[in-house]
Design a protein that fits this description.
The chain is mainly alpha-helical. The chain is built from 28 helices and 4 strands. The two termini are 28 Å apart.
Length: 560
C-alpha cells in the first residue's frame, strides 16, 4: 500500500475496484460531500442514482477496504462511489493531517463534555437517545433486563439478537450486512456476561449453550470476510466459559456438552477448545471427556474432529508415546503425519527417534505423486546440521527427478553448491528437463521447466537456443525482458510477435498489456539506433485498430 499522509494511493483504489469502476469514479468527484477523515476510517456521501453512504477503512486484513450501500457495493464490491471518496481524499492530501487532528479534538471534546455533566444531565441525555434511537433503546433494555435478572426478557431477547434473517438476502448474510449482525451478537455476549456478574451464572450457562448452537447453524450462511462476526461469536463462547467458571456446572454434563459441540458441525464458528474448561471439568470431567473422545474415535477413526479432540487431550497429558501412537494410526500418503510425529518427538528431546520417523516418511511416500515438501526440508536440515551434506544433495536430487519443477531445481542447486557439486548435478538435472521438453511434459498451459531453469540460472544464451519451438509466451517475454540490453534485436522480435498476438483479443487488460509491450518495442529501437522506425510502426498500428476506441484511449493515456 502507498505510504503517504492518507495511507493509500490511486494504485490501491484501482487494484480494489478494477479499471472500469476506477474510470467511472472520475465522473463522481463533484458528487462527494460530507467527508469526514479519521485515523482509521473515512466516511462520505456520494450523490449517484440515489444518495449513497460510503465508509473506507484503513488497516486490518486487507489494508484498505470499503463499504457502500449502493446495489453494487452491497454485493461486497469496492464500487465507483468508494473510489470517488478515496480520490477526493487524495486530492485533499495536504489537509488530511489537519482533518485527522480536528477529528481527534472533537472526540476529546465530547469526552470532556460528557465528563462535565451532572448525573441528572446525563440521565436526561440518555433518555433523549433512548427515545430517538431504537437501536440504543433495545441495547439498553437488554442490559437493564440482565442487570435486574429479568430472565424472561433475556431469554426472549438473546435468541432474537442471534437470528440472522433480518440481515439476510436470499437466505444469506452478505458482506455489507455482516457488521450489523456482528453488533447484535456482541450485544448478546454482553448480556450473558452481565448475567454471570449479577448472580445468574447458571442461567447464563444454559442460555450461552443455546446461543452457541444457534450461531454454529447460522455461521455458514454469513460472509464474514473481515472476521467481525467471528469475533462476536468468540465473545459469546468466552461468556459461556466465564459463566461456567462462576456457576461450576456438573463436570460430566459439561464434558458431554463440550464433546458434542466439538464433534458436531457448529465448532467452525467458535473454534472452542475444551481444555480451556479444564479448571471447571476437574479430574472427573476430563476423564469423561477422554472417554467420549475415545468412543467417538472408535466410531469414526478417520474423522477430523474426533482426531482433533483426542489429540488435544493426549497432548495435554504430555504423553508423547500415546500421541505418536494416535497419529500413527492415520498416516496420510503425503508424509505430513510423519512430520508431525517427528516434530512432537523433537519437542520432547528425542531427536534420533524424530529423524527416524521422518526418514520412514520418505520411505513410505517414495511411490507417491505428492510428498509434503516440509518433510523433505526437515530431513535435509537435519542432515546438513549433522554434516551429512552429500545425503542432503542425494535427497534433493531424488525429489527433483520425481517432481521436475523449478522449485525442486532451485533447492537442488542450493544443496549442491554447498558441496561444490553443482556443475555435475546441473548437467544431470538439465538432461532430465531436456527429455521432458522433448516429450512436451511442461504442462498443458505452460512451457517446459527447462526454460524456467535456464532463466533462473541466468544462462540466457542457452535459454535462447532452447526456446524456439518450446517456450511459451510468458517465457519468451521474460527472456526478452532479461536480454533487452544485451540482445535488443532478438528482444524486439519477441515483443513485435506478442503485440501481433494481442491484436486478436480485446479488453482493457489486453490493451494495458499492449501498451507496456509498445514501450518495450520503443526501448529496443532506441538501443538499436532505429528510433525513427517506432513512430511509423505505432502509426500503422493505430490505423489498423482505430475502431477500438478503448484501445485508443489507453494509448493516449500512456502517451503512445
Amino acid at each position: 500500500m502507498a505510504r503517504n499522509a492518507v495511507g493509500f494511493g490511486e494504485d490501491d483504489l484501482r487494484a480494489l475496484a478494477g479499471s472500469r469502476s476506477f474510470e467511472r469514479a472520475l465522473g463522481y468527484l463533484d458528487a462527494v460531500s460530507g467527508l469526514d477523515v479519521g485515523d482509521d476510517t473515512i466516511t462520505g456521501v456520494v450523490q449517484g442514482t440515489d444518495v449513497y453512504e460510503v465508509e473506507l477503512t484503513l488497516g486490518g486484513r486487507t489494508g484498505l477496504s470499503g463499504r457502500c450501500d449502493c446495489p453494487y457495493g452491497l454485493e461486497d464490491n469496492f464500487c465507483k462511489h468508494c473510489v470517488a471518496v478515496g480520490l477526493t481524499v487524495l486530492r485533499q492530501a495536504e489537509g488530511i493531517p489537519r482533518q485527522r487532528a480536528a477529528a481527534r479534538a472533537r472526540a476529546s471534546g465530547l469526552q470532556a463534555w460528557l465528563t462535565s455533566l451532572s448525573r441528572d444531565e446525563l440521565l436526561a441525555l440518555v433518555r433523549e437517545q433512548v427515545t430517538d434511537d431504537r437501536e440504543v433503546r433495545r441495547r439498553l433494555e437488554l442490559r437493564a433486563a440482565s442487570a435486574r435478572s429479568d430472565l424472561d426478557t433475556v431469554r426472549d431477547r438473546v435468541p432474537a439478537l442471534l437470528d440472522p434473517r433480518s440481515f439476510a438476502r436470499y437466505g444469506y448474510v452478505e458482506y455489507a450486512a455482516a457488521p450489523g449482525y456482528a453488533r447484535q451478537v456482541a450485544e448478546a455476549a454482553e448480556a450473558l456476561r452481565a448475567l454471570s456478574g449479577g448472580g445468574q451464572a447458571a442461567f447464563a450457562v444454559g442460555l450461552a449453550e443455546k446461543a452457541i448452537r444457534a450461531l454454529g447453524e447460522a455461521y455458514g450462511e454469513i460472509d464474514d470476510s473481515d472476521g467481525m462476526v467471528g469475533q462476536a461469536v468468540t465473545a459469546v463462547a468466552e461468556a459461556h466459559l466465564e459463566a461456567c467458571s462462576v456457576a461450576r456446572p456438573d463436570p460430566e454434563r459439561l464434558a458431554e456438552w463440550l464433546a458434542g459441540h466439538v464433534l458436531g458441525d457448529g465448532n467452525d464458528a467458535t473454534d472452542l477448545d475444551p481444555l480451556d474448561y479444564a479448571h471447571v471439568l476437574g479430574p472427573v470431567g476430563l476423564a469423561r471427556l477422554r472417554q467420549l473422545a475415545a468412543e467417538a474415535r472408535r466410531r469414526s477413526p478417520r474423522g477430523w474432529a474426533e482426531k482433533y479432540l483426542m489429540e488435544r487431550l493426549v497432548r495435554a497429558e504430555r504423553d508423547v508415546e500415546a500421541l505418536v501412537a494416535l497419529c500413527a494410526k492415520d498416516l496420510v500418503p503425503s508424509g505430513a503425519t510423519h512430520l508431525r510425529i517427528a516434530e512432537e518427538l523433537d519437542a520432547a528431546g528425542r531427536t534420533e527417534d524424530a529423524l527416524a520417523w521422518a526418514e520412514r516418511g520418505l520411505r513410505d511416500t517414495a511411490d507417491e505423486a505428492y510428498v509434503d515438501g516440509r518433510l523433505v526440508d526437515y530431513v535435509c536440515a537435519r542432515y546438513t546440521r549433522a554434516g551429512r551434506e552429500a545425503e542432503t544433495v542425494a535427497l534433493r536430487r531424488v525429489r527433483f527427478l520425481a517432481e521436475r519443477t523449478l522449485a525442486a531445481y532451485q533447492r537442488l542447486r542450493v544443496a549442491a553448491r554447498s558441496t561444490d557439486r553443482w556443475e555435475t548435478e546441473r548437467a544431470t538435472a538439465l538432461a532430465a528437463l531436456r527429455e521432458d521438453a522433448a516429450q512436451e511434459r511442461g504442462g498443458r498451459y505452460r512451457g517446459p521447466v527447462l526454460i524456467d531453469a535456464l532463466l533462473d540460472d541466468g544462462d540466457l544464451d542457452t535459454a535462447w537456443r532452447e526456446a524456439p519451438g518450446r517456450a511459451d509466451d510468458r517465457q519468451w517475454r521474460q527472456l526478452a525482458d532479461t536480454s533487452r540490453d544485451t540482445r535488443p534485436a532478438d528482444a524486439l522480435a519477441v515483443y513485435l510477435r506478442l503485440v501481433e498476438l494481442l491484436k486478436e483479443t480485446t479488453g482493457e487488460r489486453v490493451y494495458e498489456c499492449m501498451a507496456r509491450l509498445l514501450f518495450d518495442v520503443r526501448s529496443c529501437h532506441l538501443a538499436l539506433g532505429t528510433a525513427d522506425a517506432f513512430p511509423r510502426y505505432l502509426a500503422d498500428l493505430r490505423a489498423q485498430l482505430k475502431r477500438r476506441r478503448k484501445l485508443m484511449t489507453v494509448l493516449d493515456r500512456h502517451g503512445l
